[in-house]
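Q: Is it fine to ask for two folds in a single conversation?
A: Yes, each is treated on its own. Send the first.
Q: Here.
A: Result:
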Amino acid sequence: MAKIKGAIVVDTERCKGCRLCVVACPVQVISLGKEVNIKGYNYAQAVNEEACIGCNSCAMVCPDGCISVYKMKVE
């Protein structure tokens, strides 16, 4: 059976840094960065990408729909 690996993409310009995705991630993939976007918010970013399981929890709790989750089969 193939394993599933996840990957997230964050729309950094729309992210408001609410941290809901950070709390929702069961494997601590997401963290708020030190950089700010054009609106002055620290935005979410994947810091532990290899741990992502593609569970979609982060995307479901994001109030602004800034996160896209992709799943890939790994042999």
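Q: Second one now.
A: Result:
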Amino acid sequence: MSKPLFLALAASLAGLLSPATCRADTPPRRLVMQLDLGVKNAQFAGLLVAERDGFYREAGLDVLIRPMGSEPGAYDGIAALVAGSDHTIGSIESGLFLSGRARGLPIVALGAMFQQTPLGLMSFRATGIRTPADLVGKKIAVHGDGHEALDAVLQRAGLNRAQLTVVEADYGNAPLLDHTYDAKQGYLVDELIQMQVDGHDMVALPFGAHGYAAYSQVYFVSEATLAKHRAALVKFIAANNRGWRAALADVPGTARFVVEKHEPTLGLDYQTRSLAAIGPILTAESPQMGVSTPETWLKNAGAFLQSRPDAKLGEMSRWVDFSVAAEAAAISP
């Protein structure tokens, strides 16, 4: 090859490979989806189906779905774990996301798998708790992330905490089963269903139906991940939307798949009931999966700040990016 031709070819290749002409956002070899639960159960059926059916692969993504660890503090540490990564997507309750952001963690919410929180109060049917007014005079146990939810429910009903006894709940249900509490905070698509499957005559008072505006299984990332992999995140949520639609198109078959492939200990009845209960909350606000709204985030943030007067969140535009999930919904509505 002549020297002039070689130099011309080298200059051409340099131009093609220069930062100015390279794509700024190519799909990463791998994304990690960090779950907020130690098992891969029906709560993540859409993701598991997306993995099984090759939806991630079709989008050019290699996704590792990683259950939460069992070490102490793993649940509360998810926000910090995601904040320190440049390739991890987290799944978390919106209240815990806001708590992390208020602590100064550089995290950004992208959307929500569950457009209505499945948090609520569980009680024996015989206890008679059907509405917030029925809580008067009762002993109620809530977790650290449930106080603003309970306060929002009481406020809407014209009640206050002085009219009931509120204690801190642990993560076991034995005190509820032995009637130490009249009602206890729980995840209604998980704990409530498991106790019903076990034969306990339990009913629920859903927080979301009684004044608490919040999301669950919020997709969130670090600011670094969003800047580095934005296009890949759009494809990731779009693939999950496809997975959820496929999962709900065959609830019995999907439940059987989850049991046989991922979590046999929870049982087919539990997985089937859980998936059926999840279906309506995937699109509780919008027929488009994965999206969230400024209105609900403002209400959620208001309840959060009311229960934490010293906390600061800053402008919503800094901690929610609505465009990623909207673009994903346009690809896979």
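Q: Anything structural to flag on that second result?
A: Two points. The beta strands are 31-34, 63-66, 88-92, 107-114, 119-124, 139-142, 165-168, 183-187, 202-206, 216-222. DSSP finds 14 helices and ten strands in the chain.
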